Amino acid sequence: MLAVVGAMEEEIDLLAQAMSVAERHVRAGVEVVSGAFRGVDLVVARCGIGKVNATICTQMLIDHYPLDKMIFSGVAGGLLPNMRVGDLVVASHVIQYDVDLTAFGRRHGELPDKGRTVESCPALVQLAADAYDAVFDGGAGDPNLMLGTVVSGDRFVQDPDTLRWLQREFSALATEMEGAAVGYTCDLNGIPFVVIRGLSDTAGSEAAADFSVNLSAVCRNCFRLLEQLIPMASQDPAAAKTRMAGAG
Ligand code: SAH
Hints:
By secondary structure, the protein is α/β, with parallel strands linked by helices. Helices cover 36% and strands 29% of the residues.
């Protein structure tokens, strides 16, 4: 079974409306809709904003549903100067940028015994890129696609200094508030995951206003990718759960 998670209503609504709903539950404060989309069994959840909410939701879903993969879909702030609102970023890697044990000589984002980077499932990253190719043809108004590192922290970034630091310290393409928490929790449980983000803003001084104006339109780009990706991911054996020894 596949889980699709977003932080806000706008990020999951299009999918929740398009699926045939079998059940609705609230578990650990998280609204979960289960059912099917294009013949694929799935659960869709709105985790709320931030890494704590994302972690609780992810572990709850893993504990209550027979998941074999998870997709996070939502919006983020782009970190490179040439990025455009609406562009899509698929996270090959995620980092919790606000973990700070630099006092002990560690790098920003680094946890003891864990390193600082969690890798998305390579097969799901590849499928997300294939799904993009199937949906968008580079026409005017089509988003660009970028694959790379996405960083997460419990902060809405809207200043150029932080933006530049995140880009240079972590080689990051985008910043948001949930993806690395989802990735970390999936990794500990041996669940393949990928994080997909549409750019609602470019994390600069107008980010909050841009975010509000662009949220719905950008979520539509993410949904178009998901529509294609969900059936592809459900059929791909390489993107199925491969519980690691000792995990889960
Ligand atoms: N609308 C909310 C706040 C949204 S926070 C309120 O009423 O308070 C922003 C959300 O979008 C988070 O879920 C985060 O993951 C993502 N996001 C988009 N742009 C971001 C940015 N520049 N910095 C951090 N998170 C961002």
